[in-house]
């Protein structure tokens, strides 16, 4: 089975969501189903059907999170030996050579990715182009909008 990299923080967030789903959402939905059953005829009971639909969503999400955590390879960025090489979990300062725009990305697992927050999925074209490169290297990245030429200014392990 393929191990999927995830940062320590990403694993913590998944565990927190799993605990919330199991300890808060699941019991709340079970109570809603019981209350809806008490109202009688289930065929025409919209509350019952809505609660069952929510239950299906929550149980599916619980199974998904448990599967992801069981296949996760948790990587502690702080335990890595600092270098000027881009690796999973590193924070990378870049300059777009065409526009002069300065960018900062942290390379994380796909579950943690949030481009607006500067969290770049390891599976993204930019991250794949950056991994293994060093400070001072220039990478050309093919993205849907065309190609970008990015210079690696600094690699940090935060």
Provide the helix percentage: 25-40%
Strand order of the largest sheet: 5-4-3-7-6
Which whole number gives the mean pLDDT?
A: 90
- CATH topology (fold) name of the largest domain: Chitinase A, domain 3
Number of domains: 2
CATH superfamily of the largest domain: Transcription elongation factor, GreA/GreB, C-terminal domain
Architecture (CATH level 2) name of the largest domain = Roll
Number of helices: 3
Number of strands: 7
SSE class: alpha/beta
Highest-level CATH class of the largest domain? Alpha Beta
Give the C-alpha Rg.
22 Å
Distance between the termini: 29 Å
**Mind summarizing the main beta sheet?**
5 strands, mixed
Strand portion, in percent? Answer: 25-35%
pLDDT < 50 runs, ≥5 residues: none
| Overall geometry | elongated
Order of helices and strands: EHHEEEEHEE
Give a verbal description of the structure.
The protein is an alpha/beta fold. It folds into 2 domains: 72 residues, Orthogonal Bundle (Helix Hairpins); 78 residues, Transcription elongation factor, GreA/GreB, C-terminal domain (Chitinase A, domain 3, Roll), CATH 3.10.50. The chain contains 3 helices and 7 strands, in the order E-H-H-E-E-E-E-H-E-E. The strands form 2 sheets. A 5-stranded mixed β-sheet has the order 5-4-3-7-6. Strands 1-2 form a two-stranded parallel ribbon. Strand 3 and strand 4 form a beta hairpin. Helix 1 runs antiparallel to helix 2. The protein is elongated and about 70 Å long.
Quick take:
The chain is of the alpha/beta class and 158 residues long. The chain has helices spanning 8-38, 46-70, 125-130; strands at 4-7, 72-75, 91-96, 102-108, 119-121, 138-143, 146-156. The protein is built from three helices and seven strands, in the order E-H-H-E-E-E-E-H-E-E.
